[in-house]
C-alpha cells in the first residue's frame, strides 16, 4: 500500500498490460496444446522476428500497422513453409518446424544485430521485452492523452483473441480433436488451421514488445498445459488457462518486486510455478492424484483378494474362518494395504472379526461369490479361446475385479452354461440378494 492506494497508477498499467498479454496468449495457446502443436507456437513466435525488423527498417517507426503486417506475413509464411515441407516433401513435422523457425529467427537476429544502431530496437527488447516501460509509452492523438500504447495494442489483441475463440469455438473444438470429423461436417480444417496460426502471429507481435520473443512462448504454452491437467472439458480448460494467466501477471509483478528482476520473466516463472503445482496436486493428472487413485485401486484389489481367499477357504468342509495372520498372504499386499482393506470390508459389513479369525458375513459371501464366479468364468472363456489351462489364472486374476453382471452373463452364455472351470472346480451360480 502506497499512501491511500494499493498500487500506483504506473503499476496498474504494468499489471494490466501483463494480464492482457497472458490472457491473449493463453486462449490461443490452449488450442496449440490440444492440437499437440506447442512447438509450432514456439516457431511462430520466433519466425515473426524478421517481419518486425523489416517493418522497422521500412517504416522507421514502431507503428502498429507496419509491425502487424510484417509479423503476420512472416507468421503465415512460416506456417506455409512448414506444411509444404511436411506434406509435399515428406519432411518430418518436427524437423520441418525446426528448420523453418531457426532459419527465420536467425535472419531476424542478424538484422537486429546489423541495424541496431539505426533503429530503436535492440536484442534485449527482442528477446525479453520490457513491460516496465509501459506507463511512459503514451499514445497521443494531437493533444489528447489516450494512455499507454501497449495497453491499447494488447487490449485489441485480447479482444480479437476472445472474439475469434467465441465465434469459431465449435470449429476450433472439432478440428482440434478430430480433423477428419471436421471435414465430414463441412468444416474446412485447413482454413481453421491457418486462421489460428494467423491469430497466433497477431498476438505474438502484440505481446512482442512487452514480453519479448522468448518469453511469449511460455505465455502460449504453459497456462493451457497447466489447465489441461485439471480438466478434460474444453470450456473449463479455457477458463482455467485465463485464470492462471491473470494469476501469473499479478504474482509475477509481486515476485519481480521481491527479486528486483525482469517483470515479464517473473510472470513466466509464476505461471511455471502454477504448472508445477498443478502437476503435483491435480486430482486426476497430478502426481498426488494419480498416487491416490493407485492407492484406492490397490485397496479395492486387496479387498477382492481377501473376499476370494475367504470364499475359497470356505469350500473346505472344516472351514471356520481365516487367521488374521494369514490376511496379508491372502491379500498379496503389505501390512498397510491389508489393514486398510480389512477396515473397509469391516465397515461395509462384508467381514466380521471373531477373535483371532476373520469370517464372511452373508453380504460378504454374496460379494465373494460374484468375484469367484467372475474369475472362473473368465478362466473358462480364456481356455475356450485356446489358452492352456495353466496360463488362465494370472489374466483372470487381473480382470476379475472389473467384470460386471452383464459381462458375466455374456461369458456364461458364450460358454454354454458351463458348470466347471478348466481346473475342474465348480463355477458358482449368481446368488440373489435377499
Structural notes for this entry:
The chain has 434 residues and is mainly α. It is 71% helix and 4% strand. The chain has a three-stranded antiparallel sheet with strand order 3-5-4. The chain is elongated, with a radius of gyration of 31 Å. 40% of the residues are buried. The mean pLDDT is 83.
List the helices and strands and how they pair.
Layout: H1 9-34, H2 38-47, H3 49-59, H4 64-87, H5 93-115, H6 123-128, E1 138-141, E2 144-148, H7 149-167, H8 169-177, H9 179-184, H10 189-228, H11 234-259, H12 263-281, H13 287-314, E3 322-323, H14 327-331, H15 335-347, E4 351-354, E5 357-360, H16 362-384, H17 393-399, H18 405-415
Antiparallel strand pairs: 1-2, 3-5, 4-5
Quick structural overview:
This protein is mainly alpha-helical. It has helices spanning 9-34, 38-47, 49-59, 64-87, 93-115, 123-128, 149-167, 169-177, 179-184, 189-228, 234-259, 263-281, 287-314, 327-331, 335-347, 362-384, 393-399, 405-415; strands at residues 138-141, 144-148, 322-323, 351-354, 357-360.
Keywords:
mainly alpha, 18 helices, 434 residues, three-stranded antiparallel sheet, two-stranded antiparallel sheet
Instruction: Give me the number of helical elements.
Output: 18
Helix content: over 70%
Query: Strand percentage, roughly?
Result: under 5%
Secondary structure class reads mainly alpha
Shape: elongated
Count of DSSP strands: 5
Distance between the termini: 69 Å
Strand arrangement across the biggest beta sheet: 3-5-4
Largest sheet: 3 strands, antiparallel
Instruction: Give the overall pLDDT as a whole number.
Output: 83
Q: Unreliable runs, pLDDT <50, ≥5 residues?
A: none
N to C succession of SSEs? HHHHHHEEHHHHHHHEHHEEHHH
* Radius of gyration from CA coordinates: 31 Å
Amino acid at each position: 500500500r502506497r499512501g491511500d492506494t494499493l498500487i500506483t497508477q504506473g503499476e496498474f498499467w504494468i499489471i494490466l498490460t501483463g494480464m492482457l498479454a497472458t490472457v491473449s496468449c493463453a486462449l490461443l495457446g490452449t488450442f496449440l496444446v490440444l492440437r499437440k502443436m506447442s512447438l509450432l507456437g514456439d516457431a511462430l513466435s520466433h519466425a515473426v522476428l524478421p517481419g518486425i525488423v523489416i517493418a522497422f527498417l521500412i517504416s522507421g517507426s514502431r507503428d502498429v500497422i507496419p509491425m502487424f503486417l510484417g509479423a503476420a506475413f512472416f507468421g503465415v509464411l512460416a506456417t506455409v513453409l512448414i506444411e509444404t515441407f511436411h506434406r509435399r516433401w515428406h519432411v518430418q513435422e518436427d524437423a520441418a518446424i525446426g528448420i523453418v523457425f531457426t532459419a527465420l529467427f536467425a535472419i531476424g537476429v542478424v538484422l537486429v544485430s546489423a541495424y541496431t544502431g539505426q533503429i530503436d530496437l535492440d536484442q534485449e527488447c527482442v528477446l525479453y521485452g520490457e513491460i516496465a516501460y509501459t506507463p511512459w509509452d503514451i499514445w497521443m492523438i494531437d493533444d489528447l492523452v489516450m494512455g499507454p500504447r501497449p495497453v491499447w495494442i494488447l487490449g485489441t489483441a485480447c479482444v480479437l483473441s476472445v472474439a475469434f475463440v467465441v465465434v469459431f469455438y465449435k470449429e476450433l473444438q472439432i478440428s482440434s480433436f478430430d480433423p477428419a470429423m471436421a471435414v465430414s461436417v463441412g468444416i474446412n480444417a485447413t482454413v481453421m488451421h491457418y486462421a489460428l496460426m494467423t491469430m497466433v502471429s497477431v498476438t505474438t507481435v502484440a505481446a512482442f514488445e512487452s514480453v519479448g520473443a522468448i518469453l511469449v512462448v511460455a505465455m502460449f504454452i504453459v497456462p493451457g498445459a497447466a489447465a489441461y491437467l485439471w480438466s478434460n472439458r474444453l470450456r473449463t480448460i479455457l477458463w482455467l488457462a485465463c485464470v492462471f494467466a491473470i494469476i501469473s501477471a499479478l504474482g509475477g509483478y509481486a515476485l519481480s518486486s521481491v527479486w528486483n528482476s525482469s517483470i515479464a520473466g517473473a510472470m513466466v516463472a509464476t505461471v511455471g510455478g502454477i504448472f508445477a503445482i498443478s502437476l503435483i496436486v491435480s486430482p486426476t493428472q497430478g502426481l498426488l492424484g494419480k498416487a491416490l487413485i493407485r492407492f484406492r485401486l490397490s485397496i479395492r484389489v486387496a479387498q477382492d483378494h481377501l473376499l476370494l481367499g475367504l470364499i475359497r477357504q470356505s469350500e473346505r468342509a472344516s472351514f471356520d474362518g481365516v487367521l488374521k495372520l494369514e490376511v496379508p498372504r491372502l491379500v498379496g499386499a503389505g501390512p498397510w494395504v491389508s489393514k486398510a482393506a480389512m477396515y473397509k470390508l469391516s465397515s461395509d459389513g462384508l467381514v466380521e472379526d471373531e477373535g483371532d479369525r476373520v469370517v464372511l458375513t452373508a453380504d460378504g459371501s454374496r460379494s465373494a461369490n460374484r468375484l469367484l464366479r467372475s474369475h472362473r468364468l473368465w478362466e473358462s472363456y480364456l481356455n475356450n479361446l485356446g489358452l492352456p489351462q495353466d496360463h488362465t489364472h494370472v489374466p483372470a486374476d487381473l480382470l476379475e475385479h472389473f467384470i460386471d453382471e452383464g459381462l458375466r452373463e455374456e461369458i456364461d452364455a458364450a460358454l454354454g452354461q458351463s458348470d466347471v472351470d478348466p481346473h475342474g472346480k465348480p463355477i458358482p451360480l449368481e446368488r440373489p440378494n435377499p
